[in-house]
Design goal:
This protein has 158 residues and is mainly beta. The longest helix is centred in the first third of the chain and has 17 residues.
């Protein structure tokens, strides 16, 4: 599964690079699927991203997987990449909460999640994709830190 996700992400990156000379088109809101993967479980669920202005965006996700339900919200600052229409870099982060339940054991952890990534809106199509590195700090019972966490989003724009 992890090899498949890596292959998909690499393909998207190459596709984005090949389209870098196309005309830029922006979007205000995008709704679709979000993935959180890396060390540990892979989580999947609905994801929404909304730009408040030219550079500031909020992203929220409700993810499921690995006996967990995770709610997370991010603020992201975006900047254009010169010569790459439709492609932006971003940095940001935000809080999350993870509810875990398995075999009669329940645990709730708060999360602190910084982000750094790329956002690509396909010119001429209502499709946006994003990829980011999101190291995650777990706060609560069994506090932990996972540096090897990543996010991928595939969304339709409005």
């Amino acid at each position: 599964m992890k090899k498949l996700l890596f292959t998909i992400i690499a393909g998207v990156a190459l596709f984005a690079t090949n389209l870098s000379n196309a005309n830029a088109q922006s979007y205000k809101t995008a709704l679709g699927l979000g993935l959180d993967f890396g060390n540990g479980s892979t989580l999947v669920g609905p994801s929404i991203k909304h730009f408040f202005n030219g550079n500031g965006a909020g992203q929220a996700e409700v993810l499921f997987g690995g006996n967990s339900v995770r709610l997370q919200a991010f603020y992201q600052y975006h900047g254009n990449i010169t010569g790459a229409s439709g492609l932006k870099w971003f940095v940001g982060g935000g809080p999350g909460i993870n509810f875990f339940s398995a075999g009669g054991y329940d645990q709730t952890n708060f999360l602190l999640i910084p982000q750094a990534g790329l956002d690509f809106k396909i010119p001429g199509a209502p499709i946006q994709m994003g990829f980011d590195w999101r190291p995650t700090a777990w706060i609560g019972d069994n506090s932990d830190f996972e540096a090897g966490r990543f996010g991928f989003g595939f969304r339709f724009t409005f």
